[in-house]
């Protein structure tokens, strides 16, 4: 036994010596000329100064003239002779100092160079790369270079990987004009990977397909996303039989997907999202045995159906969102045991969700939203790897499955706009990773029970609106202290609620909507200075008697709805200062308000876009005229004057699109000059070969483009006894008016006007 122990120890000793010997032979001692060139390069480089020193140049900080560049310098790898073979200066915040005379181009043994993710401040790629004749790997991606790609790179005939991809929104990208794509790659016959994403190539299908197929016979990875390419695809592309990854998304291909993609026998990834593709997608591409990732999203004219998937399919990602794929999900989808992402949002799929999804044990992201799925959510054991489930905007019925209690990794659950019913399981709120829960626009009933063990909940978004929930809001809800968005509107919740409790418990709250319940809101706000700064507050139909005092301390509020309450008296003048100018939407309709409190502040409601004062008791001359408004409703008040009689008053309303001033106490006439500056309300009718301008005075909304909830929220119930016109508008039109007599409700000097005010 002792002999065996000794033998093992001796063997381990020998192995350690061999390992150290082999490890030390990876590089030799740095040669002096190599060290000098690297130090000279370091001296010449400049760095982006806006970042703290702790974030800049983590590799170059280890470069010291007193240490060996091969063994001690980060980002440097040498051969046994001490020649620098690989230099990695990626993510070093380098902003300048690399020009045509840089010492970098004298590192003639260099085989790998990585300058990715630096900040070269929109400078051209310098000449000189052709001096690095031994390069097999060159990565300049996302380094801030712009302009024409130099011809020098086309002389690097040993290149195996070339990455010049860039993502620089708003900046002039790299381009291939002179040289063009064909010239750049003509001599790069060893290339296996070509990454040019974001480079402006601007070539049609015949040109770029033939350039690739004639020059790069060994190409395995082709990534040309957002390269200004057009179609159609050329059959010459099929010569690249070694291709296993094709990325062509975000190009204006505008063509059908040819069958030839089904002949790439090694294909693992195909990215064709946002390419303007149309026609029927070839089913056999989905049946390629090696295919792992397929992205076809945002090609609305592309249609097809899912085929029968082969057993032991390798597909990991299937993204068809915003296409016209339709039909039922086949049961064979359960054969895709490796599937981790299934995104079919906004397609035309129908039928029931197959129970075979239970077999997808690796599934992490499931998005079947905005389709026509029917029936119940399958009561199966769903993948415990799920991070996101989105089944919104379908026709699903029945209860929430009880097995979802096991989804410990679930972060986002969206079941919005279905016909789901039953009670909401309190166990949903105990899922430890859940951050967003949207159960709105369903048929859930009963009381929202007390929630247990939720004090450590990560839930930041909760939307239970437009259901049939009833009873009091449970006090345990206030333990969800991470909430940022809370929407409980349009249910049958009852009881008295103190806003103090809401805002003192929910210190992170930015949006609160309690509208349309049977609640009575107590808005005393004794400690209002401690309330969080909310962006959206909707308290419609909450039995408010007075303006909540805490509002005067809200500096970030942009959407405020206090409509359909019981507020009386004057509108306080501090309401003009809410949000420090950020308020864009104010709805005070259906109250008993009489007049604004004076004096009115200057520049009040400077950025207010929507103002709804409908159905109050406001009277006299209106002085609430927000200059940036696009929607104004002053109807059903007692105003005697609401619009300036003279065009020089400064109230130009250049963004105004909808205005309703009906059912007031106006007299007299208005010149059309009062309306001539309402440019957003005018349309050039070029289709009828006419320069006529059309204006809509009053309320006009396309019923097909707005939900009932939106119409009600904006304007209340409009039931004036008027007949609906052929276009679906129930509104007031003013076409070609010369003058408008608002006391007798008719237009003057134009018999063709259909004006109703």
From TrEMBL:
Residues 32-79 form the Leucine-rich repeat-containing N-terminal plant-type domain. Residues 1-24 form the signal peptide. It comes from the Eukaryota. Gene3D superfamilies: Ribonuclease Inhibitor. The keyword Calcium does not apply. It is a single-pass membrane protein. GO terms for cellular component: plasma membrane. It is found in: Cell membrane. Its main location: membrane. Keywords: Glycoprotein, Leucine-rich repeat, Membrane, Receptor, Repeat, Signal, Transmembrane, Transmembrane helix. The keyword Protein biosynthesis does not apply. This is Leucine-rich repeat.
């Amino acid at each position: 036994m002792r002999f065996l122990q000794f033998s093992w120890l001796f063997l381990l000793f020998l192995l350690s010596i061999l390992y150290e010997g082999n490890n030390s032979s990876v590089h030799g001692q740095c040669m002096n000329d190599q060290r000098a060139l690297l130090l000279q390069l370091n001296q010449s480089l400049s760095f982006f100064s806006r970042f703290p020193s702790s974030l800049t140049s983590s590799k170059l900080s280890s470069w010291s003239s007193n240490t060996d560049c091969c063994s001690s310098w980060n980002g440097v790898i040498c051969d046994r002779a001490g020649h620098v073979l690989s230099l990695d200066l990626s993510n070093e915040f380098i902003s300048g100092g690399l020009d045509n005379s840089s010492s970098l181009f004298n590192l003639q043994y260099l085989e790998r160079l990585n300058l990715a993710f630096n900040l070269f401040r929109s400078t051209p790629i310098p000449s000189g790369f052709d001096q690095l004749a031994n390069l097999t790997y060159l990565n300049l991606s996302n380094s801030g270079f712009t302009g024409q790609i130099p011809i020098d790179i086309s002389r690097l005939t040993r290149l195996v990987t070339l990455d010049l991809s860039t993502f620089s929104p708003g900046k002039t990208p790299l381009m291939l004009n002179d040289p063009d794509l064909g010239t750049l790659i003509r001599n790069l016959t060893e290339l296996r990977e070509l990454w040019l994403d974001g480079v402006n190539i601007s070539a049609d299908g015949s040109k770029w397909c033939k350039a690739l197929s004639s020059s790069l016979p060994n190409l395995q990875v082709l990534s040309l996303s957002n390269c200004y390419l057009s179609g159609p695809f050329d059959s010459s592309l099929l010569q690249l039989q070694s291709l296993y990854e094709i990325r062509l998304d975000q190009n204006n291909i505008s063509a059908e997907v040819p069958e030839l993609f089904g002949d790439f026998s090694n294909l693992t990834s195909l990215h064709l999202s946002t390419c303007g593709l149309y026609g029927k997608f070839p089913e056999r591409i989905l049946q390629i045995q090696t295919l792992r990732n397929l992205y076809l999203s945002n090609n609305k004219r592309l249609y097809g159906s899912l085929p029968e998937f082969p057993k032991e399919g390798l597909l990991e990602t299937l993204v068809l969102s915003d296409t016209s794929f339709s039909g039922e999900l086949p049961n064979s989808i359960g054969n895709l045991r490796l599937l981790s992402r299934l995104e079919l949002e906004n397609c035309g799929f129908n039928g029931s969700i197959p129970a075979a999804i239970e077999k997808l044990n690796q599934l992490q992201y499931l998005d079947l939203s905005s389709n026509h799925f029917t029936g119940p959510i399958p009561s199966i054991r769903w993948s415990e790897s799920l991070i996101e489930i989105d089944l919104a905007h379908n026709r699903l019925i029945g209860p929430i499955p009880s097995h979802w209690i096991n989804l410990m990794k679930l972060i986002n659950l969206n079941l919005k706009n279905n016909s789901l019913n039953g009670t909401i399981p309190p166990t949903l709120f105990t899922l430890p990773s859940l951050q967003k829960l949207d159960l709105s626009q369903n048929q859930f009933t009963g009381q929202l029970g007390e929630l247990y063990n939720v004090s450590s909940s990560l839930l930041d978004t909760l939307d239970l609106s437009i259901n049939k929930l009833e009873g009091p809001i449970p006090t345990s809800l206030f333990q969800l202290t991470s909430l940022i968005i809370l929407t409980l509107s349009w249910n049958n919740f009852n009881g008295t609620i103190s806003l103090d409790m809401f805002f003192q418990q929910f210190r992170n709250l930015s949006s609160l909507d309690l509208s349309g319940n049977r609640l009575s809101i107590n808005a005393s706000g004794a400690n209002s200075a401690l309330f969080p700064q909310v962006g959206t507050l909707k308290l419609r139909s909450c039995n408010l008697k007075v303006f909540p005092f805490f509002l005067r301390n809200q500096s970030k509020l942009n959407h405020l709805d206090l409509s359909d309450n019981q507020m009386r008296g004057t509108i306080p003048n501090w309401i003009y200062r809410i949000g420090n100018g950020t308020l864009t939407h104010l709805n005070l309709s259906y109250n008993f308000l009489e007049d604004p409190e004076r004096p009115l502040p200057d520049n009040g409601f400077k950025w207010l876009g929507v103002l709804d004062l409908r159905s109050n008791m406001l009277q006299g001359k209106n002085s609430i005229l927000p200059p940036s408004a696009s929607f104004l409703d002053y109807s059903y008040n007692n105003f005697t004057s609401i619009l300036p009689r003279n065009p020089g008053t400064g109230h130009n309303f250049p963004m105004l699109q909808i205005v309703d001033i009906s059912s007031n106490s106006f007299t007299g006439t208005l010149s059309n000059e009062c309306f001539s500056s309402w440019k957003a309300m005018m349309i050039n009718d070029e289709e009828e070969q006419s320069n006529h301008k059309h204006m809509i005075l009053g309320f006009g909304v396309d019923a097909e483009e707005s939900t009932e909830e939106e119409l009600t929220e904006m304007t209340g119930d409009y039931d004036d006894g008027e007949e609906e016109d052929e276009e679906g508008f129930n509104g007031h039109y003013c076409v070609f008016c010369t003058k408008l007599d608002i006391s007798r409700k008719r237009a003057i000097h134009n018999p063709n006007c259909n004006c109703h005010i």
